[in-house]
Automatic annotation (TrEMBL):
Gene Ontology CC annotations of this record: plasma membrane
Coiled coil: none
PROSITE patterns assigned: G_PROTEIN_RECEP_F1_2
Main location as per UniProt: membrane
Keywords per UniProt: Cell membrane, G-protein coupled receptor, Glycoprotein, Membrane, Phosphoprotein, Receptor, Transducer, Transmembrane, Transmembrane helix
Domain G-protein coupled receptors family 1 profile stretches: 47-287
Lineage: Eukaryota, Metazoa, Chordata, Craniata, Vertebrata
The name this protein goes by in its record: G-protein coupled receptors family 1 profile domain-containing protein
UniProt xrefs under InterPro entries: Formyl_rcpt-rel, GPCR_Rhodpsn, GPCR_Rhodpsn_7TM, Leukotriene_B4_rcpt
Transmembrane segments: 32-56, 68-92, 112-133, 145-167, 182-203, 223-241, 270-290
One GO MF term: complement receptor activity
Organism field: Oreochromis aureus (Israeli tilapia)
Length: 348
C-alpha cells in the first residue's frame, strides 16, 4: 500500500514501476499542493461556517438564491474539513488511511464537485427565469418546489458520484481504461454540460436585458457571475488534466506521445486538484468583497445584512411589483413591463 500515488480528487493509483514519476515523487508539486490545501483548510472551514451561521441565525426569510448559497456553503465547508487527510498524505508521501477511507473520501470529494456546479447552475437558471420568465417564477416556483429541487439535486449528486466508489481503489490491478472512462464522464457531467447550461442562461439574460428599457447595474447579478467564473477558473485546470489523461489512452502504450501526456497528467495532478479545492473557499471572500460597504456599519452581521432583503424575491409571491434600490435611489418596478434582477440589499 506504500507504492501508490493519490490526489484529492483522483484517488490512489498504483505505481509499481520504480521509474514512474508519480505525483508523490514530485517534491515541488506535492509541496505546492500541501501549501494550497493548508491555506484552503485555514480559510475555507471558518469562512463557510460563517456563511451558514449568517444565513441561519441572522436571516428570517430565505430567498431562492440564499437557499442555494446556504447549500453551497454547507457542501464547501464539509469538503474543506476533509483536506486534512490530503495534507497528511502529501506530507508523508504515502496513503496511510486504508482502502475504505480512499473510497469514502474520494466519493465525498466528487459529491462536492457535482453539488457545487449543480447548485451554481441552479442559481443561473433561477436568474434566467427571474429575468426572462418573471411570471413563471412568481406563479410556478413555490418554496416547496424550490426545496424539492434542492433535495433532488443532492440525491442526484449522491447517485452520480457512486462510480467513484468503483473506480477509486488502493490496489495493484487498477484498470486504467475504466479510470480513463471515468475521467471523461466526470468532466462531461461535472463541467461541460453544467457550464453549457450556465452560458446559455446568461446569454439569454443579456439578450433579454438588451431588449428592454429597464437596464441597470445589478450587484447580485455580478456576485452570481463572479461565483460562476471563479468556479470555472479553479476547476478548469483539473478537467484539462482529465482530458490529457483521456487523450493519452488514444495512443499506443509505449509511444512517446503517450508517455509525455502521462508525465504531464501525473506531475500536474497534485497542483490542479489543490487548485480545485480553492473554489470551495473562494466564495466567502467574494461575499466579503460584495458586502464590504456593510462591514463598518453592521460588523459580523454584514453578510446577513447583504442578503436580508431577499424576501422581495421570495417564491410564490403574488405581487408583481417590487421595490428596488440601487445607487440611483429607490424606485418601483412593474414586473409586467420590465425584467427584474434585484440587488442584494433587497433581492437576490
Amino acid at each position: 500500500m506504500n507504492n501508490i500515488s493519490v490526489s484529492p480528487l483522483t484517488g490512489p493509483k498504483p505505481t509499481t514501476d520504480p521509474e514512474d514519476k508519480s505525483i508523490v515523487s514530485n517534491d515541488y508539486s506535492t509541496g505546492i499542493g500541501a501549501l494550497i490545501l493548508s491555506l484552503v483548510l485555514i480559510l475555507g472551514v471558518p469562512g463557510n461556517l460563517f456563511i451558514v451561521w449568517s444565513i441561519l441565525a441572522r436571516i428570517r426569510r430565505h430567498s431562492v438564491t440564499t437557499l442555494l448559497i446556504l447549500n453551497l456553503a454547507c457542501a464547501d465547508g464539509f469538503l474543506m474539513a476533509l483536506t486534512i487527510f490530503f495534507i497528511i498524505y502529501l506530507a508523508m508521501q504515502t496513503w496511510v488511511f486504508g482502502n475504505a477511507m480512499c473510497k469514502i473520501l474520494f466519493y465525498l470529494c466528487n459529491s462536492n464537485m457535482y453539488a457545487s456546479i449543480f447548485l451554481i447552475t441552479l442559481m443561473s437558471v433561477h436568474r434566467l427565469l427571474a429575468v426572462v420568465f418573471p411570471h413563471t417564477l412568481s406563479h410556478l416556483i413555490t418554496r416547496k418546489v424550490v426545496r424539492r429541487v434542492i433535495l433532488g439535486t443532492w440525491v442526484l449528486v449522491m447517485v452520480i458520484s457512486i462510480p467513484s466508489l468503483v473506480f477509486r481503489d488502493v490496489r495493484e490491478d487498477t484498470d486504467d481504461y475504466n479510470q480513463t472512462r471515468y475521467y471523461a464522464f466526470e468532466t462531461v457531467a461535472g463541467f461541460i454540460i453544467p457550464y453549457a447550461i450556465i452560458i446559455i442562461s446568461y446569454v439569454l439574460i443579456l439578450k433579454r436585458l438588451r431588449e428592454t428599457k429597464f437596464q441597470r447595474n445589478v450587484r447580485s447579478e455580478k456576485l452570481i457571475l463572479a461565483i460562476v467564473i471563479t468556479f470555472g477558473l479553479f476547476w478548469l485546470p483539473y478537467h484539462v488534466i482529465n482530458m490529457v489523461q483521456v487523450a493519452a489512452e488514444w495512443y499506443p502504450e509505449h509511444s512517446a506521445i503517450r508517455k509525455r501526456l502521462d508525465t504531464i497528467s501525473q506531475s500536474s495532478r497534485a497542483v490542479t486538484s489543490a487548485l480545485a479545492f480553492i473554489s470551495s473557499c473562494a466564495n466567502p471572500v467574494l461575499y466579503t468583497f460584495a458586502g464590504k460597504s456593510y462591514i463598518k456599519k453592521n460588523g459580523f452581521a454584514f453578510m446577513a445584512k447583504m442578503f436580508e432583503g431577499t424576501s422581495s424575491d421570495q417564491t410564490g409571491t403574488k405581487s408583481t411589483r417590487f421595490m428596488t434600490k440601487d445607487n440611483l435611489g429607490e424606485s418601483n418596478v412593474d414586473f409586467q413591463n420590465h425584467t427584474v434582477a434585484s440587488t442584494p440589499e433587497n433581492g437576490s
